[in-house]
Specification:
Helix content is 39%, strand content 20%. It is of the alpha/beta class. The strands form 4 sheets. The chain has a 7-stranded mixed sheet, sandwiched between helices. The chain has a 6-stranded mixed sheet with strand order 7-6-5-8-9-17, sandwiched between helices. The chain has a 3-stranded antiparallel sheet with strand order 3-4-18. β10 (241-244), α9 and β11 (274-278) form a beta-alpha-beta unit. Bound molecules: nicotinamide-adenine-dinucleotide.
Length: 460
Amino acid sequence: MPREGGRRELIDPATEEAFAQISAAGPAELDRAVAGAQQAFESGWRDLAAGKRAEILFAISKKLRDHADEIAAIESRNIGKPITDAKDEAALGARVFEYYAGAISKFFGETIPVASGGFSFTLHQPMGVVAAIVPWNFPFPIACWKSAPALAAGNCVVLKPASLSPLTALRLGELAHKAGLPAGVLQVVPGAGGTIGDALVQHPLVRKISFTGSTEIGAHIMRLAAGGIKRVSLELGGKSPNIVFADADVDKAATTSPMSVFANTGQDCCARSRVFVERSVFDRFVEKFVAATRALTVGGPDDPNTQLGPLVSTQQREKVEGFLTTAKSREIIGGDRPAGRGAYLRPAIVLGCETSDAVWREEIFGPVVCIRPFDDETTMLREVNDSPYGLSGSIWTNDLKRALRVARSVESGVLSINSHSSVHVEAPFGGFKQSGLGRDLGMNALEGYTETKSIYISEE
Ligand code: NAD
């Protein structure tokens, strides 16, 4: 149990009361964790047959499924996540381990005819110790979708959860080892980003940093990693568009769009927080969007009917309210605090904003959406791409050619047409521009956790 980094109280955001204490790791404990991971790498994990690693990952997946309700309950209490969502995310984590258990035996090298007297072939080799640094908004699934492919590929992992949300990462470490993961292969080190995060990134034994979090910290990590030419993959912020053309199923778009931005109380990197609606259907869309938003159930995270729980902390709520203050000259529907305790905030719909407004441009990470009309596709696309971010987005139209044309033009790593989905275990996930570098999930993630070695064999 780490101690050096001091103890921290965890606050239940639904009640604003402390419910647990956590010991944080300090620099010497971090050093031991990294050294332990390196030792586990050298003493066997990297050399284990892929099929054997797959067996262990399948066993981890099963263990996570067996404990899914417990994991969901911990997450829900820790960060105020509605229990129904927390259960889905626990199941997603188990599914990710299952996927990479199966994937690793299908991740092949190539045979390349480079010369008449021989040929080259490629090997995908593990890197060594991978640092996985994860945020507080989806703590469990993101911890799984970084650890599982890294482990499958033969790396050892040092996982650092966010200070606010360490509990399910710690449970993941325990359950993975109970399921048969050899000692030391997955190390979980809770602690503050500014102290052990920096030390982890700069540790000489860490070969790759896989980070999900804010663009600001992502840039900082990239700078720290530059000295050692360390591999980095970064999944960062977003300000994703939701584009609705008049020929779409406007009612379906309008009634499903609120949860594309307000789910997880808006604390979602893929939140569709900039809505572009073709002017001829703007009023109808807004009317239905507002009605669907008012029908959302804001409530206690332990109620299975709750769709929106509290924000992660009262500080996060104040940050979100600060954005609403900057928009007070615009029309704002909702955005008030319900009576009682807890970091709750009702969803806010901002109308009439300009593309220069902070609410329109900046990632808010709370339940705030801006809706603007557009008249022509070209101007709309210019506004869509006028953002430093490029993570996700939706396009609503029944014109196939238009859907494909617009999808090609939006600068974004993930898009969905006539839907709001963003994450599929089997498909690459990541951003353009300042939304990130590299891809999580799918077979692409395995590339990110391996080095490709090219070997020439002479037949002469
Ligand atoms: P954050 O950047 O504050 O923290 C993320 C992680 O980095 C935490 O574990 C934190 O402790 C750690 N950290 C902080 N300072 C560090 C340092 N100096 N060195 C190393 N590690 C450090 O982000 P957050 O507030 O936890 O999460 C919200 C952000 O995450 C949002 O911007 C959101 O868009 C982004 N996010 C992106 C994705 C994606 O896949 N693109 C997914 C979820 C969240």
